[in-house]
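WARN retry 2 of 3 for item q-0093 after timeout on previous attempt; input resubmitted unchanged.
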Amino acid sequence: MTSQDSLDIREVIFVNERCRVDYEAMPAEVRASADQAIDALQNARPLPPKLYQSLGGTLAVINEISTEYGADLKADHDKRKARREQEESGP
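OK item q-0093 returned
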């Protein structure tokens, strides 16, 4: 963080391309929650311990962020999206 009054530009480095694709495929409200957590961490604002932890061992420099949304949310989102696409394409 450059100063207490500024916000630095968020930078996310994905471990691999699949992680980036999965991140971008998350429902908007889930991605927004993750973006807020990333912004907070990169600007030295605290996150609750249940949402943030460093990995262990040789990966201790990597931070894992959890959101309040469960894994089932994406599955539900995908089902709704498929249903809408099917309805739009007709019988």
